Amino acid sequence: MTRHPHTRLGTFLLLCVLCLPAHAAKRICVLADTHVMAPSLVDRSDNQAWQADLAGNKKMQELSVPIFDVLVERIKSDKPDALLIVGDLTKDGEVESHDYVVKKLTEIETAGIPVYVIPGNHDRGWTGGARKYANNTYTDTKYLSETKFRTYYQDFGYGDTSECHASTLTYATRLFDGLTLIGIDSEQDARIEQDAIEWSCRKAQEARDRGDQVVVMMHHSLIPHFYGQETFHEQSVVDDCDDIRDRLMGAGVKVVLTGHYHVSDIARYTNADGQTIYDISTGSPISHPCDYRALVFDDTFTKLNILTNTISSLDGYDDFAVYSEQRLRKAIQKWAVNWLSQRSENKLLVELMSQAVTNVFVIHANGNEPANPASSEAVRIYDDIEYLAPLFSLSVTDIMKEVSLSMKSILGDYQDPADITNVVDDRELTITLPPVPTAISSIQRQPGPSDEAWYTLQGLRLPHRPTRPGTYIHQGRFVIL
């Protein structure tokens, strides 16, 4: 609901005090999927087992440390007001990799920049990939447990200044006076415990009640970024995403920071009441185009500018941007052939579709697909694919049509073919956040039908009778529960 100093709520009028205290503008750096692998985990760059693991991987894993080191130096030089990392800090949760990350994050905090992290699916527990490479082979190596993750990162979100959920790595902290951060643990398999989401919504509501804006960060996507995302990237969107999205919106959350699928993309959802929430995904610095983000809040936390930066050069590479795109294209081509081959034995289909799919995912990685001249040609190719589809068997036809729907969704930068106009700028976007009222000064009854709803003292309509103690508005009266 839109909030004004005079807001009519059914049979009564709430006189809200919109005191918007001015703060200094805040700049926050956001990283995702750094996948740092400690140098001590590989004996030499030409280790055969190591090279086999690198082949066809869209992550430039061998560059994780030099790129992370560049980012650390940039952050210390830029001096943002905070650094957020939305998961997959390490390659596969190796203790040695976490040691390296913690050492570098400590450097950043020593420079006066607070750091907050949330784990991804590669950061704790057995992932199947925690390895040490030596003598042209590998052996399993120690990885961090969930309990140890909390201990390792106690200075980066899990310390005394945060409220931590009892059974998950979810936490809430007041990032600044006027802005609360909630880090939600989406586990290894893109699932959020019911108690964790309920706890997070309570903390978001408490933050709103004290006049704070709320930013949530989690590793996996909350909103699908294109039609059929789960078909191509299993466990990339949290389970029960629609329900969790609606519950966060009901608690006043407008901005959710995500990662996981290595693309800088922004998805927007608006409900029937006109409330909007954004899923701001940040790409990986070790996957083309090697992105990281900056969030710039104005001095009242009612305007948010989202900016995107890239690692476009690296020592030892004449044209790192070209190299990184070639690496990505090669990896996606290999993946696309494998993905299509699992679904059809038709070699013509695999050959026809794999290159087209590869082109689209490279366009997707670069962002703002509709503005990319290559998108128009790619759409024409999928028009041709749809035209040819009936010439194949029914099962092949279905695959061709379904893939085409997804690829056109990417190229058009929309999440739902039924709403192709829901497009936002992926690389640079300004979001206006509704101000948070700080108090209700009085209630005046107005003629009209009875209103059975409950409201907070900030004028937020609640979906049901409050379950926690506090002071509320009901039927034109202050009610203390």
TrEMBL record:
Q: Which UniProt keywords apply?
A: Hydrolase, Iron, Metal-binding, Signal
Q: Using the record's annotation, list all stretches that form the Calcineurin-like phosphoesterase domain.
A: 27-263
Q: Which Gene3D superfamilies match?
A: 3.60.21.10
Query: Where does the record locate the signal sequence feature?
Result: 1-24
**Recorded GO terms, molecular function?**
hydrolase activity; metal ion binding
Keyword Metal-binding listed? The answer is yes
For this protein, the record's PANTHER family field holds: CYCLIC NUCLEOTIDE PHOSPHODIESTERASE CBUA0032-RELATED (PTHR42988:SF2), PHOSPHOHYDROLASE (PTHR42988)
| Family listed | Belongs to the cyclic nucleotide phosphodiesterase class-III family.
Q: Can you say what this protein is called?
A: Calcineurin-like phosphoesterase
Q: Name the source organism.
A: Prevotella aff. ruminicola Tc2-24
